Amino acid sequence: MNKIMLVLEREFLTRVRKRSFIIMTILTPILFAALMIVPGIIATLEDTNERQIAVIDDSGIFEGKIPETEYLKFSFLNDVKIDDIKETFHESNYYAVLFIGKMVASTPDAVVLYSDKQPSIDITSHISSAIKNEIESQKLMSYDIENLDEILNNIKTSVRVRTIKWTKSGEAKESSTELAMGLAYILSFMVYMLIFLFGNQVMRGVIEEKSSRIVEVIISSVKPFQLMMGKILGIAAVSLVQIVLWIILTFGLVTVGTSLFLDKSESTDANKQMVTSIMDSSGNAQAVTDSVSTDNEFVNEMMGALSNVNFPLIIGGFIFFFIGGYLLYAAMFAAVGSAVENEADTQQLMMPITIPLILAIVVMVSGLRSPDGDISFWFSMIPFTSPIVMITRLPYGVPTWELILSGSLLVVTFIFMTWLAAKVYRTGILLYGKKHNWAEIWKWIKYGN
To answer: Alpha-carbon distance 345 to 356, whole Å?
Structure first.
């Protein structure tokens, strides 16, 4: 045990002192924080360039029907042809020319936006929505229904399904399917990436020691199994330290960045101005008020659902299944590293290891839609896929007995796989000059002590 700890200490100290470890530990939280903060900053920035769009309306029914915004204006031109304005377009101050054909009600392609730039999705969506609404209104008016506008306003309905979870004690707690899905996707994909990242470090470390022949010196005083376990556990310790530092630094950077770059009061004022602008342009204050109220309710429900998330269970489950999955696959990565002399020779031997991980990602997609389905259940029990699939199910709620069974199977399989990997490692680590296949590796496993 003392020799395993010595190898562990050596692996840990060697790796944490590397420049790459320090750089990745600092850069990764900055990247994560930027991914969280930058979209919020961009969302608060407004495009203040006023754009003037000329409109040639051959149908004659849309003048004044396309609402203007603070920075988007429409000028309806009479007795003007497209060919005429095309010749002078570059000298004009128009951003684009909107042509609406006579058959717009029956031919969707009758609306064309000409410009020397690629219009944004906001502009095209604004125009298409306004024209669509007006055409629908014109068609409904043709039925000569009394109080049609009032009827249409009355039948507009917004339905959103809230989810409430009942605990065993009968307590009702706000929950959110969207929140559970987001957590499941992020955490399970992180487990997948981290297992590959740190598992490959184990394999590369074994290959480096074997190719440099330093392993021949180490083996003289340390048993192959002790060397392999020390290397696996040492890199596991490095991964835990790095993950904890990532979480702490990311949380700190997000907190500081949010307070510096996203002023809540300014954001609120901007939202109020946006709502007022929409109300003025559409003339439908009640609909906008209802929409804003619904959005506020949704935000409040999401915050309530977030406060009811069992973070200790999710974080504990994430750490356990990540460590279990890493130890399981690291043993196999170490065995592959001992059977080759350079990283290029690992491709053939890596396939049986990567297939279960890729399969787990495929099942993860199914688990996001049906976390309690048979496929998700069985793959969360299979040790080679459970580190990813069980994390996918965890935010939705998993019975305690399933967690215990899955975790127990993972631990037992890790112990068995470590035993097999050690038999491969002790033989392959001292063999040179030949490429080995799975048939030969199977012979190594069957060798006696």
So the answer is: 20
